[in-house]
């Protein structure tokens, strides 16, 4: 390839607004972040999109693919039927080390399955997890929630591994010195919750690699008391979608209230800088997507509704994970003899 810059393979056909918005976001990242983007998708469509950005120089490389995984398709079956689909081709680039990371806003299940089939898991990791960064009451301290959709059913040792991986990501990418780990539960007491929660609590408490702060109730997730929240993918996905919905509703209500009457409109003009900062704190666009932790390559799974700024920020997350050696740090933890993660619980 002849370049020393970080190379990010973009599934340009994935997402509700692909390929136009995905291409625009990739070019934005190339300009702002100094990365090299590889656009994976239908060559004719991508060339047509690039014509709308004639000033970009040099233009990104197009890696041709055939078709994509539709949202209604079952991931494994579709990946096998469509070996040249954009997400398959992008993951092959990562496997062959022609790319340093993959970003996709397409079918999240297909992205995870393609990563596992082509790139594989890190040694010692039983299940990958998708981590999502959410705002908290402390504007300088977001919370990482995982898993938010990769694993509907979990064992205690899976959640323990999520806690270790989340702690590493929080420390080295989000800049938290000693991340406080919380286990999402229905009460603070160690005896509360179902069998999974009770058994996981004991394992996290005994794990010397993490700073376990105890059970976190739903109201605590955005409080700023915890830096990492661990849960299974079913609960995590519901939590993520609910949080995004609340943020959108609050923004909508604020706009409605501040557009009613002359006095409110004057107040809105005065509050505009504060409202802009508020939107940045609650909008998922700011982080772009979740890192698929536990696979042997940097993979960012973005929101299906991603537009150009979101894609750009997803690429930023990929670059930060690479620059901070997240995969290497996770792997080093599981090369050491340690506590319960290898116990088979």
CATH topology heading of the largest domain: Rossmann fold
- What's the number of domains? 2
Classify the secondary structure makeup into a structural class. alpha/beta
- What is the tally of beta strands? 11
The CATH C-level class name of the largest domain = Alpha Beta
Overall mean pLDDT stands at 88
Relative strand content: 15-25%
Note the run of SSEs as H and E: EHEHEHHEHEEHEHEEHHEEHH
CATH architecture of the largest domain: 3-Layer(aba) Sandwich
Distance N to C terminus: 44 Å
Any low-confidence stretches, pLDDT <50, length ≥5? Answer: 337-344
Strand order of the largest sheet: 3-2-1-4-11-10-5-6-9-7-8
Backbone shape: globular
Evaluate the radius of gyration. 21 Å
Helix share, percent: 40-55%
* Tally of DSSP helical segments: 11
Largest sheet: 11 strands, mixed
């Amino acid at each position: 390839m002849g370049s020393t810059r970080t190379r990010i393979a973009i599934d340009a056909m994935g997402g509700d607004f692909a390929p136009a918005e995905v291409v625009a976001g990739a070019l934005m990242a190339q300009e702002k972040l100094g990365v090299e983007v590889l656009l994976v998708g239908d060559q004719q469509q991508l060339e047509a999109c690039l014509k709308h950005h004639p000033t970009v120089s040099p233009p990104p490389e197009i890696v041709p693919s055939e078709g994509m995984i539709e949202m209604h398709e079952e991931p494994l079956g579709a990946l096998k039927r469509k070996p040249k689909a954009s997400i398959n081709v992008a993951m092959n680039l990562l496997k062959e080390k022609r790319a340093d990371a993959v970003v996709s806003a397409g079918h999240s299940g297909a992205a995870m399955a393609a990563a596992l089939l082509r790139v594989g898991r890190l040694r010692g990791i039983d299940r990958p997890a998708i981590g999502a960064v959410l705002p908290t009451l402390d504007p300088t301290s977001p919370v990482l929630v995982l898993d938010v959709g990769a694993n509907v059913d979990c064992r205690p040792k899976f959640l323990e591994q999520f806690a270790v991986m989340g702690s590493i990501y929080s420390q080295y990418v989000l800049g938290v010195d000693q991340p406080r780990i919380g286990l999402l539960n229905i009460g603070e007491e160690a005896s509360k919750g179902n069998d999974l929660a009770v058994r996981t609590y004991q394992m996290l408490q005994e794990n010397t690699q993490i700073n376990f702060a105890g059970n976190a109730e739903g109201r605590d997730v955005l409080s700023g008391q915890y830096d990492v929240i661990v849960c299974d993918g079913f609960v995590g996905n519901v939590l993520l979608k609910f949080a995004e919905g609340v943020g959108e509703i609050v923004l909508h209500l604020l706009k409605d209230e501040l557009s009613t009457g002359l006095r409110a409109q004057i107040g809105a003009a005065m509050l505009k800088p504060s409202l802009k900062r508020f939107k940045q704190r609650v909008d998922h666009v700011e982080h772009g997507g979740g890192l698929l932790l536990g696979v042997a390559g940097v993979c960012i799974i973005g929101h299906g509704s991603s537009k150009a700024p979101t894609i750009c920020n997803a690429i930023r997350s990929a670059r930060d994970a690479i620059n901070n050696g997240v995969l290497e740090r996770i792997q080093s933890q599981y090369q050491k003899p340690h506590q319960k993660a290898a116990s088979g619980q």
